[in-house]
Structure formats: C-alpha cells, structure tokens
Amino acid sequence: MLRCVKYILHNNGASLLNQHKSLIRYKHLLAGNFQKSINLEAKWGKRFLTRNSSTQRKKEKIVGSWLLCCGGMVYVAVALGGVTRLTESGLSMVNWELLGEKKPSTAEEWKVEFSKYQKFPEFKLKNSSMSLDEFKFIYMMEYIHRMWGRGIGAVFLIPAVYFWKQGYFTSTTKKYVLLLGTLIGLQGLMGWYMVKSGLEDKFQDVNDVPRVSQYRLASHLGVAFVLYSLFLSSGLTKLMPPVSIITTSKNLMHLKKIAHVSKGFVFLTAISGAFVAGLDAGLVYNSFPKMADRWIPDDVLALTPIQRNFTENPTTVQFNHRVLGITTLSLVSLLWIYSRKCILPKRASYAINATMLMAWLQATLGITTLLNHVPVPLATAHQSGSLLLLSFALWLSQELRLLKYIPK
C-alpha cells in the first residue's frame, strides 16, 4: 500500500515538475517576444520622430525663405520710395485705389491724368511749366512705387493663406504673420495719408514749397523699417536658428548690451533722416565737419517754441542727424573694438565685422552726399545703406539672443 502511494506521488510530482518547467519556458518566450515588440516599437518610433522632425525643419526653412523674400521686397520698396522722394514724384498721382490705379495707355488718358495733376498746389506753385513728357516720368516713378507695394501684399498674403491651411505655422509664427499682415495694410494706408498732406490746399503763397508732411513721411518710413526688421529677424530665426551660448565672461554680456544700444541708434538715425528728406534739410549746410564756419549754427534754435526746431527747423534737423550719425558710428566702432576681447562664434564675429564695415561706409556716403548737394544716386545709396546697416545690426542681435551669463 505504502509502495503504491509513493509510486503515485512520484509520477504526479514528475508531471507537475514538467508542467512547471513548461510554464517557465513559456513565460521566457512571452518575455522575449514582448521585449522584441518593445524594441521594434522604439525603433519605428525613433524613425517616425526623426522623419517628423525632418519634415518640420523643411517646413521651417520654406517659411523662413518666404519671410526673407518679403523682407527683400520691403527693402526694394524703401529704395524706390527714396528715389520717388528725391525726384519729387510722390505727388504726381492724385488718386488712390485699394487694388491699384489704371496706368494711362493712350495719349488722351495721359492728358486727362495730367489735367488732374494741374489742379493741385505742386503744379500751380512749382511745376507750372512742366510738359506732358516730364509729367509722365514722375507719374511712372510713383506708379512703380505703389504697384511694388501692392506686390508685397500679394507675395505675403497668398503664401500665408496656403501655409496656414497646410499647418506650416507654429502658434508663435501665426501671431507674427497676423502682425506682419496688419503692418502691411497700415503701411499702405500711411502712404496715402502722407501723400494727401502734399495735395491739401494749404500752400497759397508763391514762396510755399508743396511737400508732404515730414511727420507723416517719418511715420511711413518708420513703419517700413519695423516691417522690414520683423521680416528679417523672423526669417533668420527659421533659417539660421541662434546658437545657445553659455558664458562666464562679463565682457560678452557687455558686448550684447552695446549691440542692442547700437541697433537702437541705427534706427533713430534713420528716422531722423526722414525729417531731413521731408524738409530738404540736406541742402541748407553743405560742409563738413562744420556747418558753414561754425560747429553749432546761429539759427539752430530760431523757431519758437523751442521744441518745434527739432522737427521743423531744417538747420536743427540736419544738425541732429549729424550728431546721431556720429554717435552711431562711435558706438559701432566701440562694439567692434570691444569684441576683440571676447571669444565669439563665427557667425557673430562675421556679423560684428559686417556691421562695422557698413557703419563706416554709410557715414562716408552721408558726408559725400552732403558735400555734393544731395545728388539722387548718392542720396538713394545713403538711404538704402541705412537699411542695410540696420540689417547687420539685427543679424548681430539675432546671433547674441541666446547668450546667457552664469557666474563663476
């Protein structure tokens, strides 16, 4: 009996042992398959993330190129505006249409357009002897400037709608796009508001010079500079993302501050140049470094109250532009000298060198333009140079944007 019990227990025990071994083997098999599944999912997940990141980067580059293209068109618009102002063509078109004015194509249409111009102060007081051919020239200058501005709106709006629908924009980019679109619309309205100031029937005396308001001209140019700056900085961010720089050097932090101050003075000097253009202040003292035989002219505070001189007295406006220009050049030179003490990434070094070179070139252009009584080619180059100098200053700020200081 006892032997029978032992025999049964022995056989069942072996059977249970074999079942236990099979269960362990099965568990190992499941664990192996599970691990393989996890590895496979991780592998495919990594590939998906890499592909997704690559696609997103491609979209960012496309958007960045589009933004820089729009910025380039704004740059050309500023240059065209300068030529329009210098050739005194801005008041030739006396109407404004949102979608564009029809350019005269026949002799009769040109005569009708010329007759409209003849009703306004600029013709009556200044251009009464103008021929039809001369009118055609100034009309075409203003027409090209206006149509180029509308072209900027089209090049911005059509891709913006497409990119928005296709999901190319991040939430931050969407805010920028809305802001840029608003500024483009504002710039167009500001342009017409400026032109209207020169068409108003407020120039009665024969000694009056019909011209647009220098305040509106400065506002028009200021909006253009802000618009260009936003296009450039946002485009550079997407195409050339700034490198994060961690530094223990206080010199580098001081360099960043000087770079921002220099950029601000570049902008202020350019806006003061709009007042110079608006008042033809470049024609009152054509000598340098002194104004005639004085460092500070006698008529610098000729108007009352005193504050009017800074925006309405041609002498004071030119004097202020000189002071701001010299200050800007000094700041940029200090920036370059200070950068010699710092270890900088290559792109930041290139940006500082470019800013320094352009600052001296711009100062040279300004002095040459003044001494030669503001010829159109030199004056156009000088105005375009101000925007190019701002471009390099913005690029430098972009490269130093992620600079962080950590104390030792």
Automatic annotation (TrEMBL):
Biological process according to GO: heme A biosynthetic process
GO CC, one annotated term: mitochondrial inner membrane
Sequence intervals crossing the membrane: 62-83, 147-164, 176-195, 215-232, 265-285, 319-338, 350-371
Pathway(s) annotated for this protein in UniProt: Porphyrin-containing compound metabolism; heme A biosynthesis; heme A from heme O: step 1/1
InterPro entries in the cross-refs: COX15/CtaA_fam (IPR003780), HemeA_Synthase_type2 (IPR023754)
Database matches in Pfam families: COX15-CtaA
Necessary cofactors: heme b
Entries under PANTHER family matching the protein: CYTOCHROME C OXIDASE ASSEMBLY PROTEIN COX15 (PTHR23289), CYTOCHROME C OXIDASE ASSEMBLY PROTEIN COX15 HOMOLOG (PTHR23289:SF2)
Protein name: (Mediterranean fruit fly) hypothetical protein
Location relative to the cell: Membrane
Keywords for this protein: Heme biosynthesis, Iron, Membrane, Metal-binding, Oxidoreductase, Transmembrane, Transmembrane helix
Lineage, highest ranks first: Eukaryota, Metazoa, Ecdysozoa, Arthropoda, Hexapoda
Catalytic activity: Fe(II)-heme o + 2 A + H2O = Fe(II)-heme a + 2 AH2
Superkingdom of source: Eukaryota
GO molecular function: heme A synthase activity; metal ion binding; oxidoreductase activity, acting on NAD(P)H, heme protein as acceptor
Annotated source species: Ceratitis capitata (Mediterranean fruit fly)
Coiled coil: none
Record's bilayer topology term: Multi-pass membrane protein
